[in-house]
Amino acid sequence: GEEVAQTPKHLVRGEGQKAKLYCAPIKGHSYVFWYQQVLKNEFKFLISFQNENVFDETGMPKERFSAKCLPNSPCSLEIQATKLEDSAVYFCASSQPFVETGGTDTQYFGPGTRLTVL
Amino acid sequence: SQQGEEDPQALSIQEGENATMNCSYKTSINNLQWYRQNSGRGLVHLILIRSNEREKHSGRLRVTLDTSKKSSSLLITASRAADTASYFCGSISGGYQKVTFGTGTKLQVIP
Predict the structure, then answer these.
(1) Whole-number pLDDT of residue B1
(2) Average pLDDT, integer, range A7-16
């Protein structure tokens, strides 16, 4: 597709429950990024993928967060045993390579999934 | 992770006026991207400027980049009420390509 799609739009979980978020990147984009936005302003990088391989996971709280990007499936971000502080909007972005430098080009963001942990 | 800084934090102007937002970042960059976020919505990409570029235009938007000062500015000319939103700069540096976002500028355009 031409837009990054994220589901669900809203997710409500009780503390300790599992939450799973999905992202379908723009067709042809080989990089996928997950970010967490808390308090309406602060963005935190979580993890990125190059195709189905983890590219950078330096932002992931590994004890409870996991993510995958498998061929022919939406990417997913899973939070086991959610905590109150996990309440945030989770954004997925995708990008294609920028051939000249070997880096990435514009990152296009999805509409986000708002996770509320009660 | 380090955050860039944007100023002002909030800006209120009349419709038709120009709005300027500034962004500073901490490390050498590959590129810098500006985004708009309407209340409760996702990020809309506005402009990407690469480290070897100094200025870029798109419609009513003008972005400048000064790598010696590690700063960028976004100018919106002839603002409209529909420009009311939060604006974020995001820098990409190093090999891992993650965006490091600024703190955002909340722009209000009064009709």
Answers:
(1) 35
(2) 97
Would you list the DSSP string of B23-86? EE-SS--SEEEEEEE-TTS-EEEEEEEETT--EEEETTEEEEEETTTTEEEEEE-S--GGG-EE
Phi, psi torsion values for B83, nearest 5 degrees: -80, -10
A34 contacts on B by Cβ (under 8 Å): none
Q: Which residues of B touch A58 (CB under 8 A)?
A: 96
Instruction: Give the separation between CA A43 and CA A59, rounded to whole angstroms.
Output: 11
Asked if omega into B111 is within 30° of 0 (cis), the reply is: no
Question: Could you say which of A59, A101, A109 has the minimum Cβ distance to residue B42?
Answer: A109
**Would you call A105 and B99 a contact, using CB atoms and an 8 Å cutoff?**
no
CB contacts, 8 Å: B41 with chain A = 111-112
In tens, the pLDDT along A50-59 reads 999 999 999 9
pLDDT for res B2: 40
> pLDDT digit string (tens) for B49-78?
999 999 999 999 999 999 999 999 999 999
Which residue of B5, B21, B28, B99 to mutate against A (max A Cβ within 10 Å)? B99
| Interior/surface letters B29-44, b for 16+ CB within 10 angstroms, e for the rest | bbbbbbbbbeeeebbe
Q: Report yes or no: A94 at the B interface, CB cutoff 8 Å.
A: no
List of chain B residues whose C-beta atoms are within 8 Å of the C-beta of residue A106: 33, 45, 48
